[in-house]
Amino acid sequence: MKKVIHTLFPAPWLSVALALMWLVLNHSLSRGHIALAIILGWFVPVFTASLRPTPITIQHPLVALKLFLTVGYDVIVSNIVVATAAAKFGKRKPSGDFIRVPLELSDPNGLTALAAICTVIPGTIWSELALDRSAVLIHVFDLKNPQAEIIRFKNRYEKPLMEIFQ
């Protein structure tokens, strides 16, 4: 029975997230949109199951919530910092540069989440993952102290992801 449920719903949290996202984006709770949300929530995970490397198991949901709020806060603050720096571009040029961050995180889903976090936060770009997954090269918009940025990155993003996925 459990195998049948897993076959029908290979990623239940993804199904729920997709259905909710459909409803939020359409600003509607009509029967038609609810039906489409359910179909989308079922269809996408079933037909993309082979693309996911390993099943996702979240070990600590409260840590995941805290990380979500941290990333949300960082997105807002980084938007302000980047916009302010762009407005003052003539006065002081940002000193963007690449840094190599050693990684302890090895779970493929955790690494995917880390790449998404780097992508969504203005001023940081995930550039390259080492072949052995031991380090990531990221570009920081205005890098003042590389060592402090590495410590911040590991504490704010990598450590919570390790708690969640490993």
Separate helix tally: 6
Oligomer: single chain
Major β-sheet strand ordering: 1-3-2
Radius of gyration, whole Å: 19 Å
Number of strands: 3
Q: What share of residues is helical?
A: 55-70%
Q: How many independent structural domains?
A: 2
* Helix/strand/pairing category: mainly alpha
Distance linking N and C termini: 27 Å
Shape: globular
Low-confidence stretches: none
What integer is the average pLDDT?
A: 88
Order of helices and strands: HHHHEHEEH
Strand content: 5-15%
Biggest β-sheet description: 3 strands, antiparallel
GO molecular function: monoatomic cation transmembrane transporter activity
Protein name: Na(+)/H(+) antiporter subunit E1
Family: Belongs to the CPA3 antiporters (TC 2.A.63) subunit E family.
Organism: Saezia sanguinis
Q: Mind explaining what this structure looks like?
A:
The chain has 2 domains: 51 residues, no CATH class; 105 residues, no CATH class. Helix 2 runs antiparallel to helix 3 and helix 4 runs antiparallel to helix 6. The model has no long low-confidence stretch (mean pLDDT 88). The protein is built from 6 helices and 3 strands.
